[in-house]
Amino acid sequence: AKKCPLSMVKQIIRPKKYESIDEIKHFIEKNMNKEIEMNGAEIGNEEYIRIISQKWFNDQIINYYLQLIKKYAKEVFNTKVYVFSTYFFPSLQSKGVEVVKKWIEHLGIFDYQFLFFPIHNNSHWSFVTVNLKENDEIEYWDSLDSSYTQSFKIENPETEDLPNGMSYRIWTIIRPILLLLRAERFRLKKQLYTTKITKIRCPQQPNGIDCGLYVCLFARGRICGKTMPYRIRTYELRLKLCYEIMVGEIVYDFDHQFNEPIH
Predict the structure, then answer these.
(1) Can you say whether residue 164 is alpha, beta or left, with left for phi > 0 and alpha for psi between -120 and 50 degrees?
(2) What does the alpha-carbon distance between residue 150 and residue 171 come to, in Å, rounded to a whole number?
(3) d(CA 164, CA 168)
(4) What are the structural domains of the chain?
(5) Using CA atoms, how far apart are residues 157 and 72, in angstroms rounded to an integer?
(6) pLDDT tier for residue 3 given thresholds of 50, 70 and 90
(7) 192 vs 80, 140, 155, 179, 261, CA distance in Å?
(8) How many whole angstroms separate alpha carbon 115 and alpha carbon 73?
(9) pLDDT digits 0-9 by tens, 34-90
(10) Are 140 and 176 in contact (CB under 8 A)?
(11) Is 0.70 topped by the overall pTM?
């Protein structure tokens, strides 16, 4: 068999993994005007400033980074993830399941292992995952309200009242998602399950601005099966997240730390 000449072999060049804070900051500063787009999520100067200036994450940042995680999950772990836009859940709450269920009929959601729902509710970001390979098990991640783990089982969300021990706020998030999944299963004549819902014990943010960052980290950890440490260097994580957005790829290991701490 003939060998392809080296000039014909497509080389995959991975983005550089900077180990110096100064180097990664220099790269970011040089690329602050870079505009990028992925699956409808657009990022530009405003988003970069938000990320590195310790500001609250907007929809574009969350949507873009979760698309990177979706790509990373497939390439590294061969895990199929469907990521719903941050704009999906508000529509589900306001328009109701009967309207929104028509939007997902073409998606083939049961061909995926995970569904990711970034949730924006009352000026706060939280995160919901659905594990479709585990009987639609739902996990709720919240950096302001998940200091301990709780589990619930729901047989029929159409008739059940607020589950004993679950806060009304969380139920108003989980119930529409449950009803949507149930409607799609019913349409496809798939088995209906008693659904396990778990409010995950997870690290709590130390301020009022990092909820979006935590959502990105929860999603990343869920894919690689690792838990965030309870004490994190948020500015370092923001730098890495900004860099990964700029280069369009997850570059750093989940538990990576720079060689020198930020003072």
Answers:
(1) beta
(2) 13
(3) 10
(4) 17-247 (3.40.395.10)
(5) 33
(6) very low
(7) 22, 21, 9, 11, 50
(8) 12
(9) 999 888 889 999 999 999 998 999 999 999 999 999 999 999 999 999 999 999 999
(10) no
(11) yes
